């Protein structure tokens, strides 16, 4: 397993949605690759922080800019 394979499967790994063989392969890689372990641990911590936090209030000008950007983006979709 290569680092790019771990990154490709990261979401499913964290969601525990991988078949056991692939999960074991990733865990073996993580045991030997400090860089990938940092990516996995940091991603887990980020998810935990955002899942346990309250949404930040937006100012009206910021909310309006975001709303307009979303409308513009949706209009460009095929």
Draw up the topology in text.
Layout: H1 3-14, H2 20-32, H3 34-51, H4 60-76
Helix pairs in contact: 1-3, 2-3
Low-confidence spans: pLDDT under 50, at least 5 residues? none
Envelope shape: elongated
Number of helices: 4
Helix and strand element order: HHHH
Describe this structure in words.
- The structure is a single chain.
- The mean pLDDT is 94.
- This protein is mostly helical and 78 residues long.
- It has one domain.
- It has four helices and no strands.
- 5% of the residues are buried.
Key structural traits:
elongated; 0% strand; 78 residues; mainly alpha
In short:
This protein is an all-alpha fold and 78 residues long.
């Amino acid at each position: 397993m290569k680092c790019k394979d771990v990154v490709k499967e990261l979401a499913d790994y964290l969601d525990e949605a991988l078949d056991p063989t692939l999960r074991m392969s990733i865990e073996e890689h993580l045991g030997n690759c400090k860089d990938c372990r940092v990516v996995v641990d940091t991603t887990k911590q980020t998810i935990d922080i955002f899942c346990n936090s309250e949404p930040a209030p937006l100012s009206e000008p910021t909310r309006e800019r975001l709303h307009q950007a979303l409308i513009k983006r949706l209009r460009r979709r095929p």
